[in-house]
Specification:
There is one protein chain. This protein has a single domain, classed as Alpha-Beta Complex (Lambda Exonuclease, Chain A), CATH 3.90.320. The strands form two sheets. A five-stranded mixed beta sheet has the order 1-4-5-6-7, with helices on one face. The protein is built from one helix and seven strands, in the order βββββαββ. Strand 5, helix 1 and strand 6 form a beta-alpha-beta unit. It is an alpha+beta fold.
């Protein structure tokens, strides 16, 4: 099975019907569904998350991954972000039954 991965995908901005080239580039676009941004930093900052969320919004994609290669274990350097609506938090219910242990 082959996975479609495009790299350095140009991301133009359309403002008031005019295409504006700002130099935005998605590091990787997997199966035209997942935006992947690659980093090599000590830790993620809110700027990295904002960048990925902007790319998701501009590309009309919903799922993105931030991957940081400057970690001892790669699994610790992966953050998944989802952009979209309808992701309301479930209402808190105080009537949650307690679990009794024997």
């Amino acid at each position: 099975m082959q996975v479609n991965v495009r790299t350095e995908v140009e991301l133009p901005v359309i403002y008031d019907g005019v295409r504006v080239e700002l130099g935005y580039r998605i590091d990787m676009l997997v199966e035209d569904l997942v935006v992947v941004e690659l980093k090599c930093v000590e830790s993620f900052s809110s700027l990295h998350e904002a960048q990925l969320l902007s790319y998701l919004k501009l590309s009309n994609k919903r799922v993105g991954l931030l991957i940081n290669f400057q970690t001892a274990h790669l699994k610790d350097g992966i953050k998944r972000l989802v952009y979209g609506c309808g992701w309301d938090k479930p209402a808190y219910s105080s009537s949650v039954p307690s679990v009794a242990k024997n």
